[in-house]
Predict the 3D structure of the following.
Amino acid sequence: MSRLKSYQPPIRLRLTAWYVLFLGAILLLFSVYVYWQTQRNMVAQADHALELALAQTLINVDREGEHLTFKNLANNPDALRNIDDKFLIYLVAPDGTAWDQIGSDNHAPQPQQLPSGYYSQLADGESWRILSREVTVGKVTGYVQVLQELEAIRLALVSLQQQIGLAIPLALILAGFGGLFLATRALNPINRITQTAQSITAEDLNRRIAYPGPRDEIGRLAQTFDGMLDRLQQAFDRERRFTGDAAHELRTPLAALKGRIGVTLSQPRDNEQYVATLQSMEEQVDRLSRLSNDLLFMARLDQGVLKGESEPIPAADLLGAVVDTIRPLAAAKSIRIVEQINSTSTLVGDMDLLIRLFLNLLDNAIKYTPPEGEVRITATEGNGQVHIAIADSGFGIADDHLPHLFERFYRVEKSRVRRLGQNGKGGVGLGLAIAHEIARSHGGSISVQSQVEHGSTFTVHLSSTTNDKSS
């Protein structure tokens, strides 16, 4: 029983069922209309025949004493020639008493008091149509009542009912098979798309649906699947690169630690050598700590758990706090920080995340600017945004690296590190990626312009509201 309750018929059967039900409702309504209209027309034809018979009868009504009679018709058989024998005609007194009649039928309604008009009556199970009309000859008034049996109409309508009763089920059966055939043909491309999608695994995400049909609803569905597969493949590729790069970045300091420990333990050392070893190990541990913190931060950004609380932040106050934090690092390399903050705008976002964004950019600028160099910070407004540019006087970045700068673990610093004499103590390639993700989470973006030997400029574009300081 539970299986029956949980059973869901295929969509082609549901479409066919709805199609047949809808068609059945239309055919039923149409049949009711046809039946009603046919009955109406046949009764109208019968009424017209009654009118003709009545007209021929009225001109032959005569007075005989205090009542009316069809005496003229009896003496003139030719007058009855045009009156069909299927009619029964009564000449009735105002009180319903029969004065005279033409024709007879034991099953017909008896003469009765009926005002002028059309009537339908049953007599012995048979339907009759009656037309009653007042007639006055001299001072005597009576009623001529023309009756016609409707058995022929009844039989015709019964036959019509039978034909409709046979035609509708037959039409629905044919429509059901036809609808099932068409639904199956229409859904065949979806079945092929489903089979292809089911056969695609994580190992062959490069496969696509590649639907060859027109760009209709099914074509757009296949295109949507292909777009989703593109995004999945890109996400898997990013995860693979991220995992591989993270493993590599973790392996390097761990290998250095293990090697340093092994060398130290290979023979007795004095206190100074042990101190040097511990200092070297501390540097590697610091690097591991920074890497793990950055990895955790990126993971939380991806999960959306670091959105924080949005609050209005004056752009000048934000940049001032960032510059105060980074200034000791710049002073250690004798690098000048020039501020040109011409913005009264207010940013809306998380203060801590935005500070980290600009600290990462400034740290990157100071790291790759030679001693005695300059880092310039400018803030301008336009198009409802504040544009904060951080320009350094470093060695610049080649054009082929620019599209990849914000990818995780992407680094272009090998030659720059050598020129700066940092002995490979560069970053791990997550600073710019973190800055990019923070900007994106605030509805902004980061653009970069760079020229080799002339430095680089990173510009952050964030939505803002302008403070009105006029009095």
Summary: The mean pLDDT is 84.
